[in-house]
């Protein structure tokens, strides 16, 4: 495994109390693999990613347990300087909003080139040539001229391409993309997603793709990890999940994807709201919303069971995963 997050716990101490944002997350991604991380707003997708990248706001955030193994080393035990080196060169992150992540007063050429000057000791001139090359790679037309322009002079889709170029500049082993296309309109979304998927294959990087759009992951992801209230509730190869989910929450997410063949039908939405992270229900956190819930679910927190009887590596945190799978 390139990246393995084990039993990660993150809390936020606020004036109102302690929000338990991440409550024992386990996930992994291999080199050359794409893991899609899915879940409703507030389920802890970004906080987990920030912990992996080492960019969590601390305080108010605090990592209270777990391990983050990257290429076999626990990132949580590295010295800050070593950590910074890993973050700069071996892993990179793509955010939803390029405009606030790029520096408005530097041309995109300067920003892309900076990576090579700082991390590879290149001359300004060579770095600029590299910047143009990267802009070509992410298919920005007229790169030779546009390299002098500033972020605000690019469209949203083009800016997102620049962010992808920044992330890939040093050919990191791992890229985390946090809702990379959410801010774009639908046609541009698909183009940017295709580009990201293509580059991921070409560079053979591990990609963690955070999204709440189950629709986009089918084509690009190898595995899916579904999060709920700061835990992974199901993890499986994409095709298995689409065929038959092994967790009622995943089933709910799947049922709420709009389908072209059912136009006009009312869209299903999972009933109720995600829990208050300062007061997570006992037992299974999903039980108040779950159509399959029984007494056991209200008292006993389900472990991440191995889903047996399939030849793939699947896990579900549901006491009744068998019923869900076959129901
Ligand atoms: N800086 C912060 N201060 C306090 N609480 C925070 C902070 N950042 C995150 N949280 C808490 O952590 C929870 C999980 O946040 P996170 O950003 O990981 O959600 P998410 O799954 O990425 O949601 P979304 O789909 O909306 O991006 C939030 O509901 C919030 O309560
Ligand atoms: Mg988020």
Brief summary of the model shown:
With 327 residues, the protein is an alpha/beta fold. The protein has helices spanning 45-53, 80-89, 98-101, 108-120, 124-137, 143-146, 156-168, 186-203, 214-220, 238-243, 248-255, 295-299, 321-326, and strands at 3-14, 17-29, 34-38, 61-70, 73-74, 91-94, 174-178, 206-211, 223-228, 231-237, 305-306, 315-316. The strands form two sheets. Strands 6-7-8-3-9-10-12-11 form an eight-stranded mixed beta sheet, sandwiched between helices. Strands 2-1-4-5 form a four-stranded antiparallel beta sheet, with helices on one face.
3D architecture notes:
The chain is α/β, with parallel strands linked by helices and 327 residues long. The protein has one domain: 3-Layer(aba) Sandwich (Rossmann fold), CATH 3.40.50.300. The chain contains 13 helices and twelve strands. The strands form two sheets. An eight-stranded mixed sheet has the order 6-7-8-3-9-10-12-11, with helices on both faces. The chain has a four-stranded antiparallel sheet with strand order 2-1-4-5, with helices on one face. Helix 4 (108-120) packs across helix 5 and helix 7 (156-168) packs parallel to helix 8. The structure holds adenosine-5'-triphosphate (ATP) and magnesium ion. Magnesium ion (MG) binds at residues 45-46, 178.
